[in-house]
Write a structure and sequence with these properties.
CATH superfamily of the largest domain: Aldolase class I
CATH topology of the largest domain: TIM Barrel
Structural class: alpha/beta
Strand order of the largest sheet: 7-8-9-10-11-12-13-14
CATH class of the largest domain: Alpha Beta
Strand content: 15-25%
Number of helices: 11
CATH architecture of the largest domain: Alpha-Beta Barrel
Order of helices and strands: EHEEHEEEEHEHEHEHEHEHEHHEH
Mean pLDDT: 92
Length: 338
């Protein structure tokens, strides 16, 4: 249920609604928009149905939410959510945010080398995996805390925001010390224990779509995070599994405009994992920008032939630089910037 407040609703009236609904066993979530302030209520349907919410002072209208993902939906918030990651780095506004770096943090030298090159090309966020979920237990699993230190050092030296994947609730406190954005990978999209714990934080989160997840399932996973208090969530389309085997996954371009219609959350696209082939990354990235994505996450490596993970889908730095110039042109055509 959504309570739409009058334009002249006072702070005292808002607090009165929050207190009353909390006492009824409901969980209120407030969204202060440009034109209106709304309060989304989560709780038992029978309580919502019988409580006369429209008689509260300051209430203009009460709207039932049809989508099962209540807080994630456009019904709850009409304006796009803009997430501030750090000073000068935001996502959800008119700019297309680019996240780039190696798949895995392999060494201090490589991390800093790639970071310098992607920043020079225009990337604002440095990516790198310290704990790597791999299909085979014999593949490189990441450097752990040592890798996190390298990521943080490179980010601080170059004034870049950082992102890395968290797979286990037990690692959450450690990873939060070193990174600006928490990435929830495709394999953990429905790890509800992890989602709920991350929901208790206020740290920016990037939630990747599960390999076989429907859009509804993806948005419901985001709802777990928002319903626990963290609204700093960006959604990442990274390709889904279909019957096609020519590429690693199938990039669902449809998902970009559709999710932006359904939800107020920013949408990021990962063309590296979506295609799995380095020479398809640029075309897929450009298509994603044209379709309206708010950000891109791209894997870049100095020497893909010797990469410890995902070398086949990693761009060389100079190819990444060319792509950034092409993205800038496409963004300009559709009224956006990078």
């Amino acid at each position: 249920m959504i309570i739409v407040l009058k334009k002249d609703a006072t702070e005292e009236q808002i607090q009165h609604i929050l207190e009353k609904t909390t006492k009824l066993g409901l969980k209120p979530n407030i969204s202060r928009g440009v034109e209106r302030t709304v309060i989304g209520l989560i709780g038992p349907e029978d309580v919502l149905r019988v409580t006369p919410l429209d008689v509260f002072p300051g209430v203009e209208n009460v709207i039932p939410v049809l989508a099962p993902y209540r807080l994630v939906s456009r019904e709850f918030r009409k304006e796009n959510t803009v997430i501030k990651i750090k000073d000068g780095v935001e996502i959800g506004d008119n700019k297309v945010l680019v996240i780039a770096g190696p798949c895995s943090i392999e060494s201090k030298e490589l991390t800093l080398s790639v970071a310098k090159k992607v920043k020079a090309a225009g990337a604002k966020v440095l990516r790198g995996g310290a704990f790597k979920p791999r299909t085979s237990p014999y593949d490189f699993q990441g450097l752990g805390e040592e890798g996190l230190k390298y990521l943080k050092e490179a980010g601080e030296q170059l004034n870049m925001a950082t992102i890395t994947e968290v797979m286990d609730v037990r690692d959450l406190e450690l990873i939060c010390k070193y990174t600006d954005i928490l990435q929830i990978g495709a394999r953990n999209m429905q790890n509800f224990t992890l989602l709920k714990e991350i929901g208790k934080l206020h740290k920016p989160v990037m939630l990747k779509r599960g390999i076989s997840a429907t859009i509804k399932e993806w948005l419901m996973s985001a709802e777990y995070i928002l319903s626990n208090g963290n609204f700093n969530v960006m959604l990442c389309e990274r390709g889904i599994r279909t019957y096609e085997t020519a590429t690693r996954n199938t990039l669902d371009i449809n998902a970009i405009p559709l999710v932006k219609q359904l939800s107020h959350l920013p949408v990021v696209v990962d063309p590296s994992h979506a295609t799995g082939v380095w020479n398809l990354v640029s075309p897929a990235a450009k298509a994603a920008v044209a379709a309206g994505c708010d950000g891109l996450m791209i894997e870049v490596h100095d020497n893909p032939e010797e990469a410890l993970s995902d070398g086949t889908q990693s761009l060389l730095p100079y190819k990444f630089g060319v792509l950034m110039q092409e993205i800038k042109q496409i963004a300009k055509v559709i009224g956006r910037d990078t």
